[in-house]
Write a structure and sequence with these properties.
By secondary structure, the protein is an all-alpha fold. It has helices spanning 3-18, 21-49, 59-67, 72-96, 106-132, 140-153, 157-180, 195-229, 238-245, 252-275.
Length: 278
């Protein structure tokens, strides 16, 4: 066997290992962990809509809520480890490609790399909280304002913040449109579902994905506004973004709808953990 053939054989074995049972288990644990976070954030947002404004509807608030449950410490560590699994799975996609006919394209690998970096950050924050029971860096709102303020201070910072906001708006629209068009069907093992199950998954996927995309898009709009006005305090994290839905003419009922959508996206994440092709 020549050197080229041996190299190809080695790469094939590496891809097989990356897509093996260990990586599959890591991916499914990651989707389940993501589902827990969205369920908790959506539930906290519902409580805010119904008057409990002392809650914090973001990842920090979700972790605080989980910590107060029986065996909270164990749950926090399990959540963090699940998110590490998600990061490792995304890393394997970046290195070896993902499922699908264009899974090894440069675009898909770049997206996997970005997602890996995101989940590394989220997993680190959850594990840090699990170790210390202290949410370092403050709320998502304070983190957004601080990051925006630092970015505005650098050369061309105003343009960078504005561009980042537009990217977030675009990402939110992309998430919502793909959800409405049910693009996730390409990644699910639909043959393993009954007709009734597919219908229920579609409700969670379409409504939940649209709500998630809307929240992203609105957060991006606030970032653009902060850049235009050169006021970092106008940037909003997840908690403040959700609260703005209650300030619209529709009142708290719009927040109720969005929060319910986030809860449904949490349920959809559990469906992904069960039926996603990895």
């Amino acid at each position: 066997m020549n050197t080229s053939a041996m190299a190809q054989s080695g790469r094939f074995r590496a891809r097989q290992m990356a897509r093996g049972s260990v990586t599959e288990g890591a991916a499914r644990a990651g989707f389940a962990a993501r589902g827990v976070i969205y369920l908790l954030v959506g539930a906290l947002a519902l409580q805010i809509a119904f008057g409990d404004t002392g809650r914090q509807a973001d990842r920090g608030g979700a972790l605080q809520e989980l910590a107060q449950k029986p065996f909270g410490a164990v749950l926090l560590w399990a959540l963090g480890i699940g998110l590490v699994g998600m990061a490792l799975w995304r890393l394997s996609e970046a290195l070896f490609g993902s499922v699908g006919k264009d899974g090894r394209s440069a675009r898909k690998r770049l997206m996997a790399t970005v997602r890996c970096a995101f989940y590394v950050f989220v997993a680190y924050s959850v594990l840090t909280f699990a170790a210390s029971r202290h949410q370092s860096g403050g709320s998502s709102d304070q983190q957004s304002r601080d990051a925006t303020a630092r970015a505005l201070e650098i050369p061309a910072g105003q343009m960078l913040v504005g561009a980042a906001g537009l990217v977030i708006v675009g990402a939110g629209g992309w998430i919502a449109v793909r959800a409405v068009l049910r693009k996730y069907h390409d990644k699910l093992r639909l043959g393993q579902m009954s007709r009734r199950t597919r219908q229920l998954v579609d409700v969670t996927g379409v409504v939940g994905g649209a709500a998630r995309g809307l929240v992203f898009a609105v957060a991006g709009v606030f970032a653009v506004r902060a850049a235009i006005d050169y006021e970092p305090d106008k940037a909003k994290g997840l908690d403040d973004t959700l609260r703005t839905f209650a300030d619209t003419p529709l009142g708290p009922w719009l927040l109720v709808c969005v929060a319910a959508g986030l809860v449904l996206f949490g349920v959809f994440s559990f469906a992904m953990a069960r039926w996603r092709r990895v």
